[in-house]
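FAQ: What does the model actually see?

It sees only this:
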Amino acid sequence: MSEFSLYNTLSRTVEPFRSISPKHVGMYVCGPTVYGPPHLGHVRGPVVFDVARRYLQHLGYTVRFVRNITDVGHLVGDADEGEDKLSKQAKVEQLEPMEIAQIYTDAYNRVMDAMNVQRPSIEPRATGHIIEQIEMIQAIIDKGLAYEVNGSVYFDVEAYNKQKVYGILSGRVVEELQAGAGNQSRQLEGQDEKKHSNDFALWKKATPEHIMQWTSPWGKGFPGWHIECSAMSAKYLGEEFDIHGGGMDLLFPHHECEIAQSTAAHNHQPARFWIHHNMITINGQKMAKSLNNGIMVEQLFNGDHPLLQQAFTPMTLRFFVLQAHYRGTLDFSNDALLASQKGWQRLQSAIAVLPSIKTTDNPTDDISEEWLLAQDLEDNILNSLNDDLNTPQVIANLFELSRRINLVNDGKAKITAETKVHFQKIWDSIALGILGLLPETANTNDSALSAAMEILLELRSKAKVDKNWTLSDQIRDALKSKGFEIKDGKEGSTWLIN
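And it is asked to produce this:
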């Protein structure tokens, strides 16, 4: 079996994973800025890193998983200008900023729970770690790599770049960044007090009307967005830890700034592996307010959006996310979700019949081969996970598992009790355990569907008894056109979703 490997953005290669401490992994993932309800863009990262965490646990690692809550410092412009996002929303809703943070943190966690994303080991808030951020800023100042101007503190990118490399993660070159910035960037709020346009805020002076502000050695103010992750990851995982994760949209400037800050403060980089997932697009377009194509997660769950024909379950959404490799673009559409729903139901339909499948006590060469195939199937799945968490290939192997179950159920193959147990083990450990997919048979809608199907099959059975072949065929064909397959056997008819 292959060795577990991950694509490291820092080295731009797929590397064998080695933890700093044997059988212990420290993982930090950038969490949400909680100033609004969770949207579609919020779901991919948590699912991807949840699978990574689950697989590491499957491999025998103890994982300390830290995911922060950004409740201060993230400015509207993401470039040291504009209002703090939470403060702005607090004014809109006429609430305290911490009320906004609590409301939307709870909303975010409700969505994560519904999608079976494990809660983090530690969920620190930026506002709860102001002291640690101030101490880290002071350490950077003491090393001559940050400077204070008018109550604000900025990281000196040019001074840092003389000692280290700013742009090591993103591949951007400081000189090119400066040339590209031109004079326009200096017109932005606070830019004229920076030494260089690429310098970024570690601490911002607060105006008297600014709601969220703290006392610091440089006066009343609030921390910059980037410093929080550097301070909190160091506090809970140490100055060097195994994995730092986030979306491609955070690679620059956020993660680049994190590396610079942590390296300046601790003389080495914070994380061994930098793992980035790609973005979700909608019908081939980037999600953007200007395009008015954003979708809230609750709208997906209740179907209340113009782009949706129906509501979709949390597990359908999770299955949809896992059908694409995390480093590739994931394009969302109603049709794509319908296809995911259909595929997820097919897998569940197959595994549902496994307990009732009859086994044989008389092995043959064919049965022995089937047992070997089951072994190979599990090996293929684990090799796919080891290959940079290739979840689409894992799901392809689960469809192969369902195909084999259906072959046995249709009487076209036989298996031993041992093979049957192995099939169930693969499903439980991979689909439910590592991929984190929860069976939805207990769902009210599923129960209603099952009851309706039983009524239709009874009507069809009566039509056959009455030799009303036309009605019998009409029911079968109508169901087939809607994606249902009816199978007639000696003990009656069964159904599944293709």
